[in-house]
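seq:
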Amino acid sequence: MFVLDYQTPEKATGTVAETYNVFLQKNIPVPAPLQLMSTSPGLFDVFFAQISYFMRHESLSFPLLAAIRLLAAHQVCFDHCVNLNQTWLSKTGLSAEDLADLAAGRQVDAFSEAENALLATVSKVLRKERIGEDDIQRLRALGWKDSDILDACAQATNMLGMSSLFGAFSK
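struct:
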């Protein structure tokens, strides 16, 4: 899959194998970007710590995070993540229409007003638009903390860098 030496789930050892088991025990494929990061033990630990942070996020639900990743994947034509996050969103109950609305930047019926507003902000960040004080005030009024807003946007923008690495080192 990659031109660098990395650990596949079948051949992983040590802490990498233990980390991969977090996914495999839940019948979730080990994310390909995580496999790429196994090339560098230090970056692997940092990358998994970030994944773990989002997995336990108190405000950003699994479907919302998957939607954020899907928006970013569409932005950078990261097909692997588009397919994976669409599959996960379908399993959480989003319809084909919901997925089409999300891709088109429209409100998604499966998400609340607050979640749709946050997704709209993430989309603005992905388009490299400025987020104004009015945008932030609206999100706060809908119940989002500033840390939630930054976390959601960071989840999306982190995928931009990963897509560059993934593309550069893929076979």
